[in-house]
Amino acid sequence: MMKLKDLQAKPWYYQLAVFSVGGLLVCAAFYYFITSNTRVETSVLDEQITKLQQDNAAAQVASQRINEFRAAYTRSQAEYEDLKALLPEQRELTSVLQGLQDRAQGRLSVRRFSPKEDVQQDFYFGKPIEVAVSGSYNNVGAFFAQMAAFQRIVSISDFQIRQATQQGTGQTIDTQFLLTAYYVPTESLQPAAPPGTAATAKPITPPITPAPAKN
Question: For residue 127, with 0-12 CB atoms within 10 Å meaning exposed, 13-18 middle and 19 or more buried, which class applies?
């Protein structure tokens, strides 16, 4: 090893180079041993920050999806309420059918008004009714125009029309069709029971039959 006296005997630039190399070694050793723990902690913190940023991005996406689902649910509820306004409840169906029958009798001679078994369609039900009427062409057309403008949802299918077998005053054609009135069952309008609550027995709703047709 070079002694200090030998180093002092060397030119100044040689001494400067030796001291520079020594200083660099001391700095490197200080940086390695003193800051090693800090560098490890910094690396761990960087990983945690990256993970938190990823979790935050995923949470923002989930929050956005939840808001979209809430908006879609709100729209569906509004559409359901609008549709429910056009669909009578089950207990109102009798008065609706009576109103349809009265509309027919106001202009036509009702020969048949026969309700059939209810038919379920999604969350609502349909009440099919076989109808046969006689009247003038204009009165039959006016009746169907009333049905098209009816506040409640009804449909007419299996439509048949022919010349009346017995021509009478104002009765020139016979018409048969299937009239279906739609309604919402009472159970669909009741709030769901809380979890763990035993369902209470519901009374059986008797079949709905309108007033007999007046000939």
Answer: buried
Q: Which two tokens stand for residue 48?
A: 């945690």
> For the whole model, what pTM was predicted?
0.46
Residues ≥6 apart with Cβ < 8 Å to 107? 135, 139, 142, 143
Contact (CB, 8 A) for 90 and 186 = yes
Does residue 152 sit in helix, strand or coil?
coil
Environment class of residue 118 by beta-carbon count within 10 Å: exposed (0-12), middle (13-18) or buried (19+)? middle
- CB 199, CB 187: distance < 8 Å: no
Residue with tokens 């009765």: 171
Contact 208, 93 (CB under 8 A): yes
CATH code for the structural domain at 90-186: 3.30.70.60
pLDDT digits (tens, 9 = 90+) for 135-193: 888 888 888 888 777 766 778 888 888 888 777 667 788 889 998 888 777 665 544 44
Q: Read off the tokens for 120.
A: 């379920």
